[in-house]
Structures are given as C-alpha cells and as structure tokens.
C-alpha cells in the first residue's frame, strides 16, 4: 500500500544497513550508533534483540538465506559472525582493509566482501578462508555491491566507479 508502518528514530548516528531475516517478519538494522549498533526488529516495530559490545560500529550486514548466520562488517576492518537463531557471537576476522559491503551466496556458505582498492574477496563463512579474489573494478568513494550469480553461482558481478 505504500503506507509507513513505523519509524525507528532512536539512533543518534547514521543507520548504515538493514537486512531481512528469511522469515519475512523480522529484520536487522546496522548503525554507527555505539548504543544501538545492531538490532533485530519485528514488523510491528518491537525490538527483539540488541547486539552490543565495545567499539561495535556497523558498516554493512547480511543474514544467510537459511537464517543461521548474521555477518557484519565493522568500520575497523573486522568481520563478525553470529549464530543468528541463538544471537551468539561465533567468531570474527581481521581483514586489514576498509570494506564497503557484504553479501551471501544462496547456500549461505560464502560471502562476497567489496573492499576499497578495487578488490572483492570471497570467504568461507565458517573457516574465514579466502576462496576467491576478484580485481578489475574501481571502488574508492562509493558503496558498490557485488553478487554471486549465473549457473551454480559460478560468476561474480560488480559495478564500478
């Protein structure tokens, strides 16, 4: 209908990302706000969970298609992975580079991470091992999201500045 159901206005700093959970009834909001960095909401505007720890400032987030993992990239070059149903932190990886966005493959096993410097890295979510590195696009100032696609997701597509 296009009618606004509610507004989330308790953030004191930029909201940077949002991701739907596979149930279609809840969603996660990522923010630079250290008091509300990563929150889970329902469609009626109720907050279900708050992930909060020191220096947690979210740049982008994604939920695996099966709803098992929540992955976020932070401003300080870390990727953090949570068990989404249990809301517990599993691990984090230091990437050593500024990341702009993250997206899952359909199986929820790998993520693409767009990075400054014109690189996209594919990593295995469980091990943190790099399974692919893609170069050629220009990415410095803008968020440009890459994605898996094609037959058996054998291709990676990305925009470029």
UniProtKB/TrEMBL annotation:
Transmembrane segments: none
Protein name: Anaphase-promoting complex subunit 4 WD40 domain-containing protein
Keywords for this protein: Repeat, WD repeat
Lineage: Eukaryota, Fungi, Dikarya, Ascomycota, Pezizomycotina
Domain of life: Eukaryota
């Amino acid at each position: 209908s296009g009618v606004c159901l509610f507004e989330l206005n308790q953030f004191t700093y930029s909201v940077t990302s949002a991701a739907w959970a596979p149930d279609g009834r809840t969603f996660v909001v990522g923010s630079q706000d250290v008091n509300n960095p990563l929150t889970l909401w329902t469609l009626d505007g109720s907050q279900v969970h708050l992930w909060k720890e020191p220096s947690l400032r979210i740049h982008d987030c994604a939920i695996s298609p099966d709803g098992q993992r929540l992955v976020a990239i932070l401003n300080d070059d870390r990727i953090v992975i949570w068990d989404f149903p249990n809301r517990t932190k599993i691990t984090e990886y230091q990437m050593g580079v500024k990341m702009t966005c993250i997206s899952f493959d359909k199986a929820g096993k790998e993520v693409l991470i767009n990075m400054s410097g014109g690189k996209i890295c594919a990593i295995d979510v469980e091990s943190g091992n790099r399974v692919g590195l893609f170069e050629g696009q220009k990415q410095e100032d803008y968020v440009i999201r890459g994605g898996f696609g094609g037959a058996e997701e054998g291709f990676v597509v990305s925009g470029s500045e």
